[in-house]
Amino acid sequence: MINRLYFTSNNKQIQQHAFEAIKEEQNTIGYYALPEQDITPVSAYCQTIPEEIRTIVVIGIGGSSLGAKAIYEFVRPVKKLKRKLYFFESTDPINITTLLSKIDLKTTHFLVISKSGTTVETFSIYKYIYSLHNDPKAYTFITDPGSPLEQYAQSIQASILHLPNNVGGRFSVLSTVGLVPLALCGIDIQALLKGAQVVKESFFNEGYLKDTLLKKAVYYAKNHAQYHINCLFAYSESLKYFCEWYVQLWGESLGKHQRHSAFHVGLTPIGLIGPKDQHSFLQLIMEGTRDKSVTFIKIEDFNDRITIPDITLPHLESLDVLNGLPFEKLINMQCDSVMEALLNEKDIPIDSIIIPKTDEENIGSLIFYYELLTSLVGELIDVNTYDQPGVEAGKIILKKKLEDNIQKLEQKNSG
Q: Do 127 and 56 fall within a single domain?
Protein backbone atom coordinates (compact mmCIF):
# COMPACT_ATOMS: atom_id res chain seq x y z
CA MET A 1 0.00 0.00 0.00
CA ILE A 2 1.06 3.57 -0.67
CA ASN A 3 0.06 6.47 1.58
CA ARG A 4 0.48 9.99 0.17
CA LEU A 5 0.06 12.99 2.48
CA TYR A 6 -0.99 16.34 1.06
CA PHE A 7 -0.21 18.21 4.27
CA THR A 8 2.98 18.71 6.26
CA SER A 9 3.96 17.89 9.83
CA ASN A 10 7.66 17.98 10.63
CA ASN A 11 7.94 18.14 14.42
CA LYS A 12 10.66 15.50 14.81
CA GLN A 13 10.72 15.71 18.60
CA ILE A 14 7.03 14.88 18.96
CA GLN A 15 7.31 12.18 16.30
CA GLN A 16 10.17 10.53 18.17
CA HIS A 17 8.24 10.69 21.45
CA ALA A 18 5.28 8.94 19.83
CA PHE A 19 7.49 6.29 18.25
CA GLU A 20 9.25 5.48 21.51
CA ALA A 21 5.91 5.26 23.35
CA ILE A 22 4.54 2.81 20.79
CA LYS A 23 7.72 0.72 20.94
CA GLU A 24 7.27 0.52 24.72
CA GLU A 25 3.59 -0.42 24.39
CA GLN A 26 4.57 -3.64 22.64
CA ASN A 27 5.51 -5.03 26.06
CA THR A 28 1.95 -4.74 27.38
CA ILE A 29 -0.49 -4.42 24.47
CA GLY A 30 -1.08 -7.74 22.74
CA TYR A 31 -2.23 -6.77 19.24
CA TYR A 32 1.29 -5.73 18.16
CA ALA A 33 2.44 -9.38 18.26
CA LEU A 34 -0.43 -10.82 16.22
CA PRO A 35 1.21 -10.59 12.74
CA GLU A 36 3.95 -13.05 13.82
CA GLN A 37 1.66 -15.62 15.44
CA ASP A 38 1.74 -19.31 14.59
CA ILE A 39 -1.56 -20.16 12.87
CA THR A 40 -1.12 -23.92 13.34
CA PRO A 41 -3.68 -24.07 16.21
CA VAL A 42 -6.27 -22.23 14.10
CA SER A 43 -5.66 -24.54 11.13
CA ALA A 44 -5.89 -27.61 13.39
CA TYR A 45 -9.19 -26.39 14.84
CA CYS A 46 -10.62 -25.77 11.36
CA GLN A 47 -9.90 -29.39 10.45
CA THR A 48 -12.32 -30.48 13.20
CA ILE A 49 -15.30 -28.84 11.47
CA PRO A 50 -17.02 -31.43 9.21
CA GLU A 51 -17.08 -30.90 5.46
CA GLU A 52 -20.88 -31.04 5.45
CA ILE A 53 -20.93 -27.72 7.31
CA ARG A 54 -21.73 -25.19 4.58
CA THR A 55 -22.32 -22.05 6.63
CA ILE A 56 -20.46 -20.32 9.46
CA VAL A 57 -22.29 -17.91 11.73
CA VAL A 58 -20.63 -15.43 14.08
CA ILE A 59 -22.75 -14.43 17.07
CA GLY A 60 -21.00 -11.35 18.45
CA ILE A 61 -21.03 -7.58 18.40
CA GLY A 62 -18.53 -4.74 17.94
CA GLY A 63 -14.97 -5.98 18.03
CA SER A 64 -16.20 -9.57 18.00
CA SER A 65 -17.63 -9.23 14.51
CA LEU A 66 -16.76 -6.00 12.67
CA GLY A 67 -13.18 -6.86 11.75
CA ALA A 68 -13.94 -10.31 10.36
CA LYS A 69 -16.90 -8.89 8.47
CA ALA A 70 -14.73 -6.15 6.96
CA ILE A 71 -12.20 -8.69 5.66
CA TYR A 72 -14.81 -11.20 4.48
CA GLU A 73 -16.78 -8.60 2.52
CA PHE A 74 -13.57 -7.22 0.98
CA VAL A 75 -12.34 -10.60 -0.27
CA ARG A 76 -15.64 -12.38 -1.01
CA PRO A 77 -16.45 -10.64 -4.33
CA VAL A 78 -13.17 -11.72 -5.96
CA LYS A 79 -12.56 -15.17 -4.47
CA LYS A 80 -14.52 -18.42 -4.57
CA LEU A 81 -14.95 -19.34 -0.90
CA LYS A 82 -15.80 -22.76 0.52
CA ARG A 83 -18.43 -21.56 3.01
CA LYS A 84 -20.73 -18.60 3.52
CA LEU A 85 -20.29 -16.40 6.57
CA TYR A 86 -23.10 -14.56 8.37
CA PHE A 87 -23.00 -12.22 11.36
CA PHE A 88 -25.66 -11.95 14.07
CA GLU A 89 -24.79 -8.59 15.65
CA SER A 90 -28.10 -6.96 16.49
CA THR A 91 -31.04 -7.53 18.81
CA ASP A 92 -33.31 -6.20 16.06
CA PRO A 93 -35.92 -9.00 15.84
CA ILE A 94 -36.49 -8.49 12.11
CA ASN A 95 -32.76 -8.78 11.46
CA ILE A 96 -32.54 -12.01 13.48
CA THR A 97 -35.50 -13.56 11.68
CA THR A 98 -34.21 -12.50 8.26
CA LEU A 99 -30.75 -13.96 8.84
CA LEU A 100 -32.17 -17.23 10.17
CA SER A 101 -34.23 -17.57 7.00
CA LYS A 102 -30.97 -17.65 5.00
CA ILE A 103 -29.33 -20.57 6.79
CA ASP A 104 -29.93 -24.26 7.35
CA LEU A 105 -29.34 -24.94 11.03
CA LYS A 106 -28.29 -28.54 10.36
CA THR A 107 -25.39 -27.48 8.11
CA THR A 108 -24.30 -24.42 10.11
CA HIS A 109 -21.60 -24.03 12.74
CA PHE A 110 -21.94 -21.15 15.20
CA LEU A 111 -19.05 -19.17 16.67
CA VAL A 112 -20.19 -17.40 19.84
CA ILE A 113 -17.68 -14.65 20.57
CA SER A 114 -17.53 -12.59 23.75
CA LYS A 115 -14.33 -11.48 25.46
CA SER A 116 -16.03 -10.93 28.81
CA GLY A 117 -18.39 -13.86 28.36
CA THR A 118 -21.43 -11.85 29.44
CA THR A 119 -22.30 -9.60 26.46
CA VAL A 120 -26.06 -8.94 26.57
CA GLU A 121 -26.61 -8.69 22.82
CA THR A 122 -24.61 -11.83 22.09
CA PHE A 123 -26.36 -14.02 24.63
CA SER A 124 -29.87 -12.82 23.94
CA ILE A 125 -29.30 -13.95 20.33
CA TYR A 126 -27.51 -17.15 21.36
CA LYS A 127 -30.33 -18.14 23.71
CA TYR A 128 -32.85 -17.77 20.91
CA ILE A 129 -30.82 -19.76 18.39
CA TYR A 130 -29.96 -22.43 20.96
CA SER A 131 -33.67 -22.86 21.64
CA LEU A 132 -34.06 -23.77 17.96
CA HIS A 133 -30.92 -25.89 17.66
CA ASN A 134 -29.65 -27.21 20.98
CA ASP A 135 -26.77 -29.39 19.80
CA PRO A 136 -23.58 -28.38 21.69
CA LYS A 137 -21.46 -29.74 18.82
CA ALA A 138 -22.85 -26.99 16.59
CA TYR A 139 -21.22 -24.25 18.70
CA THR A 140 -17.71 -23.05 19.41
CA PHE A 141 -17.18 -20.40 22.10
CA ILE A 142 -14.38 -17.83 21.84
CA THR A 143 -13.70 -15.97 25.07
CA ASP A 144 -11.13 -15.05 27.71
CA PRO A 145 -9.77 -17.88 29.86
CA GLY A 146 -11.82 -18.34 33.04
CA SER A 147 -14.77 -16.25 31.84
CA PRO A 148 -18.36 -17.25 32.68
CA LEU A 149 -18.74 -18.22 29.03
CA GLU A 150 -15.87 -20.69 29.26
CA GLN A 151 -17.48 -22.24 32.33
CA TYR A 152 -20.79 -22.54 30.50
CA ALA A 153 -19.16 -24.08 27.43
CA GLN A 154 -17.39 -26.64 29.61
CA SER A 155 -20.69 -27.54 31.25
CA ILE A 156 -22.25 -28.48 27.89
CA GLN A 157 -19.00 -29.99 26.57
CA ALA A 158 -18.76 -27.56 23.65
CA SER A 159 -15.58 -26.44 21.89
CA ILE A 160 -13.68 -23.49 23.41
CA LEU A 161 -11.07 -21.18 21.93
CA HIS A 162 -9.31 -18.37 23.78
CA LEU A 163 -8.40 -14.80 22.95
CA PRO A 164 -4.71 -13.95 23.36
CA ASN A 165 -3.63 -11.93 26.38
CA ASN A 166 -4.05 -8.15 26.41
CA VAL A 167 -5.85 -7.88 23.08
CA GLY A 168 -8.90 -5.62 23.25
CA GLY A 169 -11.99 -6.42 21.22
CA ARG A 170 -11.61 -3.71 18.59
CA PHE A 171 -7.96 -4.70 18.07
CA SER A 172 -8.71 -8.44 17.93
CA VAL A 173 -9.47 -9.08 14.25
CA LEU A 174 -6.05 -10.66 13.61
CA SER A 175 -6.52 -13.03 16.57
CA THR A 176 -8.76 -16.11 16.89
CA VAL A 177 -11.73 -13.72 16.83
CA GLY A 178 -11.21 -12.98 13.15
CA LEU A 179 -8.88 -15.73 11.94
CA VAL A 180 -11.15 -18.65 12.87
CA PRO A 181 -14.32 -17.61 10.98
CA LEU A 182 -12.25 -16.36 8.03
CA ALA A 183 -10.18 -19.54 7.79
CA LEU A 184 -13.30 -21.69 7.99
CA CYS A 185 -14.60 -19.88 4.91
CA GLY A 186 -11.41 -20.40 2.94
CA ILE A 187 -9.79 -17.01 3.31
CA ASP A 188 -5.98 -17.13 3.33
CA ILE A 189 -5.20 -16.03 6.87
CA GLN A 190 -1.45 -16.48 6.41
CA ALA A 191 -1.54 -13.88 3.63
CA LEU A 192 -3.66 -11.66 5.87
CA LEU A 193 -1.01 -11.76 8.60
CA LYS A 194 1.75 -11.28 6.03
CA GLY A 195 0.14 -8.00 4.97
CA ALA A 196 -0.01 -6.85 8.58
CA GLN A 197 3.62 -7.89 9.08
CA VAL A 198 4.74 -5.80 6.09
CA VAL A 199 3.26 -2.68 7.70
CA LYS A 200 4.65 -3.55 11.13
CA GLU A 201 8.18 -4.05 9.78
CA SER A 202 8.01 -0.86 7.74
CA PHE A 203 7.00 1.12 10.82
CA PHE A 204 9.32 -0.36 13.43
CA ASN A 205 12.33 -0.97 11.16
CA GLU A 206 12.75 2.47 9.57
CA GLY A 207 10.65 1.77 6.48
CA TYR A 208 8.77 4.48 4.58
CA LEU A 209 5.58 3.96 6.59
CA LYS A 210 7.31 5.05 9.79
CA ASP A 211 7.73 8.61 8.54
CA THR A 212 4.27 8.67 6.96
CA LEU A 213 2.41 7.33 9.99
CA LEU A 214 4.25 9.60 12.41
CA LYS A 215 3.66 12.72 10.31
CA LYS A 216 -0.02 11.87 9.92
CA ALA A 217 -0.55 11.09 13.61
CA VAL A 218 1.23 14.26 14.74
CA TYR A 219 -0.80 16.37 12.33
CA TYR A 220 -4.10 14.86 13.58
CA ALA A 221 -3.10 15.33 17.22
CA LYS A 222 -1.77 18.86 16.79
CA ASN A 223 -4.89 19.97 14.92
CA HIS A 224 -7.51 17.82 16.65
CA ALA A 225 -9.33 20.84 18.09
CA GLN A 226 -9.95 22.28 14.60
CA TYR A 227 -10.02 19.21 12.36
CA HIS A 228 -11.87 16.98 14.80
CA ILE A 229 -13.81 15.03 12.15
CA ASN A 230 -11.91 12.41 10.16
CA CYS A 231 -13.59 11.18 6.97
CA LEU A 232 -12.54 7.92 5.38
CA PHE A 233 -13.63 8.15 1.72
CA ALA A 234 -13.22 4.67 0.24
CA TYR A 235 -13.77 4.22 -3.49
CA SER A 236 -15.02 0.64 -3.49
CA GLU A 237 -18.22 -0.95 -2.23
CA SER A 238 -16.08 -3.80 -0.92
CA LEU A 239 -14.68 -1.42 1.72
CA LYS A 240 -18.09 -0.55 3.19
CA TYR A 241 -17.62 -2.79 6.21
CA PHE A 242 -13.99 -1.78 6.61
CA CYS A 243 -15.35 1.74 7.12
CA GLU A 244 -17.67 0.41 9.84
CA TRP A 245 -14.72 -1.29 11.55
CA TYR A 246 -12.71 1.95 11.33
CA VAL A 247 -15.56 3.92 12.92
CA GLN A 248 -15.56 1.63 15.96
CA LEU A 249 -11.77 1.53 16.22
CA TRP A 250 -11.35 5.30 15.93
CA GLY A 251 -14.38 6.36 17.98
CA GLU A 252 -14.06 3.92 20.87
CA SER A 253 -10.29 4.36 21.13
CA LEU A 254 -9.95 8.14 20.87
CA GLY A 255 -13.10 9.64 22.41
CA LYS A 256 -11.99 9.97 26.05
CA HIS A 257 -11.05 12.08 29.03
CA GLN A 258 -7.40 12.96 28.74
CA ARG A 259 -5.16 11.03 31.14
CA HIS A 260 -3.58 14.14 32.65
CA SER A 261 -6.44 16.64 32.54
CA ALA A 262 -10.21 16.86 32.88
CA PHE A 263 -10.70 17.73 29.21
CA HIS A 264 -12.86 15.66 26.87
CA VAL A 265 -11.13 15.02 23.54
CA GLY A 266 -11.63 12.88 20.48
CA LEU A 267 -11.70 12.65 16.71
CA THR A 268 -15.05 11.80 15.15
CA PRO A 269 -14.86 9.10 12.45
CA ILE A 270 -17.02 9.21 9.33
CA GLY A 271 -17.08 6.34 6.82
CA LEU A 272 -17.94 7.26 3.22
CA ILE A 273 -18.13 5.24 0.00
CA GLY A 274 -17.37 6.73 -3.38
CA PRO A 275 -18.69 7.63 -5.80
CA LYS A 276 -22.17 7.58 -4.25
CA ASP A 277 -21.26 9.86 -1.33
CA GLN A 278 -19.98 12.42 -3.84
CA HIS A 279 -23.69 13.10 -4.33
CA SER A 280 -24.37 13.77 -0.65
CA PHE A 281 -21.69 14.23 2.01
CA LEU A 282 -19.12 15.76 -0.34
CA GLN A 283 -21.07 19.02 -0.39
CA LEU A 284 -20.58 19.34 3.37
CA ILE A 285 -16.85 18.67 3.06
CA MET A 286 -16.39 21.07 0.17
CA GLU A 287 -18.31 24.09 1.44
CA GLY A 288 -19.13 23.33 5.05
CA THR A 289 -17.27 24.13 8.26
CA ARG A 290 -13.52 23.55 8.02
CA ASP A 291 -13.44 20.89 10.71
CA LYS A 292 -12.83 17.77 8.59
CA SER A 293 -9.83 15.91 7.27
CA VAL A 294 -10.30 13.35 4.50
CA THR A 295 -8.45 10.14 3.68
CA PHE A 296 -9.19 8.67 0.24
CA ILE A 297 -8.72 4.96 -0.38
CA LYS A 298 -8.30 3.71 -3.96
CA ILE A 299 -7.85 0.21 -5.38
CA GLU A 300 -5.56 -0.03 -8.41
CA ASP A 301 -6.65 -3.47 -9.57
CA PHE A 302 -10.26 -4.50 -8.90
CA ASN A 303 -9.70 -7.90 -10.53
CA ASP A 304 -12.63 -7.12 -12.82
CA ARG A 305 -12.22 -5.83 -16.37
CA ILE A 306 -15.78 -4.90 -17.36
CA THR A 307 -15.98 -1.81 -19.55
CA ILE A 308 -18.60 0.69 -20.61
CA PRO A 309 -19.98 -0.42 -24.00
CA ASP A 310 -19.18 1.59 -27.13
CA ILE A 311 -22.78 2.70 -27.62
CA THR A 312 -24.13 6.08 -28.72
CA LEU A 313 -27.47 7.02 -27.16
CA PRO A 314 -29.75 9.50 -28.99
CA HIS A 315 -29.65 12.98 -27.42
CA LEU A 316 -26.88 11.78 -25.03
CA GLU A 317 -23.98 11.96 -27.47
CA SER A 318 -21.94 14.03 -25.00
CA LEU A 319 -21.63 10.90 -22.86
CA ASP A 320 -19.73 9.07 -25.60
CA VAL A 321 -16.59 10.11 -23.70
CA LEU A 322 -17.38 7.12 -21.47
CA ASN A 323 -17.31 4.59 -24.30
CA GLY A 324 -14.79 1.78 -23.90
CA LEU A 325 -13.69 2.99 -20.46
CA PRO A 326 -13.06 0.24 -17.85
CA PHE A 327 -15.19 0.78 -14.75
CA GLU A 328 -12.14 0.41 -12.51
CA LYS A 329 -10.50 3.32 -14.36
CA LEU A 330 -13.67 5.42 -14.16
CA ILE A 331 -14.07 5.01 -10.39
CA ASN A 332 -10.45 5.99 -9.81
CA MET A 333 -10.80 9.00 -12.10
CA GLN A 334 -13.79 10.03 -10.00
CA CYS A 335 -11.71 9.70 -6.84
CA ASP A 336 -8.80 11.68 -8.31
CA SER A 337 -11.16 14.45 -9.46
CA VAL A 338 -12.66 14.88 -5.99
CA MET A 339 -9.20 14.90 -4.43
CA GLU A 340 -8.08 17.60 -6.87
CA ALA A 341 -11.16 19.69 -6.13
CA LEU A 342 -10.50 19.51 -2.38
CA LEU A 343 -6.82 20.32 -2.82
CA ASN A 344 -7.84 23.47 -4.67
CA GLU A 345 -9.64 24.60 -1.50
CA LYS A 346 -6.24 24.83 0.26
CA ASP A 347 -7.63 24.45 3.81
CA ILE A 348 -8.93 20.84 3.85
CA PRO A 349 -6.27 18.32 4.95
CA ILE A 350 -6.34 15.24 2.73
CA ASP A 351 -4.26 12.15 2.09
CA SER A 352 -4.65 9.08 -0.07
CA ILE A 353 -4.07 5.36 0.44
CA ILE A 354 -3.55 3.28 -2.69
CA ILE A 355 -4.22 -0.47 -2.43
CA PRO A 356 -2.60 -2.46 -5.28
CA LYS A 357 -5.37 -5.04 -5.53
CA THR A 358 -8.24 -6.77 -3.75
CA ASP A 359 -6.77 -9.64 -1.74
CA GLU A 360 -6.03 -10.83 1.79
CA GLU A 361 -2.53 -9.39 2.03
CA ASN A 362 -3.65 -5.87 1.18
CA ILE A 363 -6.60 -5.80 3.59
CA GLY A 364 -4.25 -7.17 6.28
CA SER A 365 -1.91 -4.24 5.63
CA LEU A 366 -4.77 -1.75 5.80
CA ILE A 367 -6.07 -3.22 9.09
CA PHE A 368 -2.70 -3.04 10.83
CA TYR A 369 -1.97 0.41 9.39
CA TYR A 370 -5.11 1.78 11.03
CA GLU A 371 -4.44 0.01 14.32
CA LEU A 372 -0.99 1.61 14.46
CA LEU A 373 -2.36 5.02 13.50
CA THR A 374 -5.00 4.78 16.23
CA SER A 375 -2.38 3.90 18.86
CA LEU A 376 -0.16 6.79 17.77
CA VAL A 377 -2.95 9.38 17.83
CA GLY A 378 -4.18 8.09 21.20
CA GLU A 379 -0.72 8.55 22.68
CA LEU A 380 -0.38 12.05 21.24
CA ILE A 381 -3.78 13.35 22.43
CA ASP A 382 -3.07 11.82 25.87
CA VAL A 383 -5.85 9.24 26.20
CA ASN A 384 -5.97 5.59 27.19
CA THR A 385 -6.50 4.11 23.73
CA TYR A 386 -7.47 0.68 25.03
CA ASP A 387 -10.30 1.22 27.52
CA GLN A 388 -13.94 2.20 26.92
CA PRO A 389 -15.51 3.54 30.14
CA GLY A 390 -18.21 5.39 28.21
CA VAL A 391 -19.44 2.12 26.73
CA GLU A 392 -19.32 0.40 30.11
CA ALA A 393 -21.51 3.09 31.68
CA GLY A 394 -24.38 2.24 29.35
CA LYS A 395 -23.98 -1.47 30.08
CA ILE A 396 -24.30 -0.84 33.82
CA ILE A 397 -27.54 1.10 33.32
CA LEU A 398 -28.93 -1.64 31.07
CA LYS A 399 -28.12 -4.30 33.66
CA LYS A 400 -30.06 -2.32 36.30
CA LYS A 401 -33.03 -1.94 33.93
CA LEU A 402 -33.06 -5.68 33.24
CA GLU A 403 -32.95 -6.47 36.96
CA ASP A 404 -35.80 -4.03 37.61
CA ASN A 405 -37.81 -5.64 34.82
CA ILE A 406 -37.39 -9.10 36.38
CA GLN A 407 -38.53 -7.79 39.75
CA LYS A 408 -41.65 -6.25 38.20
CA LEU A 409 -42.50 -9.53 36.46
CA GLU A 410 -42.00 -11.48 39.68
CA GLN A 411 -44.23 -9.06 41.60
CA LYS A 412 -46.88 -9.28 38.89
CA ASN A 413 -46.83 -13.06 38.90
CA SER A 414 -46.91 -13.31 42.70
CA GLY A 415 -49.84 -10.88 42.82
A: yes
CATH of the domain at 48: 3.40.50.10490
- 345 and 368 part of one domain: yes
- Assess contact for 391 and 169: CB atoms under 8 A: no
- Which of the following is catalytic: 84, 162, 257, 395? 395
Answer yes or no: do 297 and 246 share one domain: yes
Q: How many domains does the chain have?
A: 2
* Catalytic pick among 127, 260, 279, 412: 279
* Entry pTM: 0.94
Full domain range(s) for residue 10: 2-24+198-383
Q: What is the pLDDT along the chain (415 residues), one digit of tens a residue?
A: 999 999 988 789 999 999 999 999 999 999 999 999 999 999 999 999 999 999 999 999 998 899 999 999 999 999 999 999 999 999 999 999 999 999 999 999 999 999 887 888 999 999 999 999 999 999 999 999 999 999 999 999 999 999 988 998 899 999 999 999 999 999 999 999 999 999 999 999 999 999 999 999 999 999 999 999 999 999 999 999 999 999 999 999 999 999 999 899 999 999 999 999 999 999 999 999 999 999 999 999 998 999 999 999 999 999 999 999 999 999 999 999 999 999 999 999 999 999 999 999 999 999 999 999 999 999 999 999 999 888 777 778 888 888 888 777 777 777 6
Q: Which of 73, 89, 252, 360 is catalytic?
A: 252
211 shares its domain with 341: yes
Respond yes or no: is residue 346 known to be catalytic.
no
Residue 102 is a catalytic residue = no
224 tagged catalytic: no
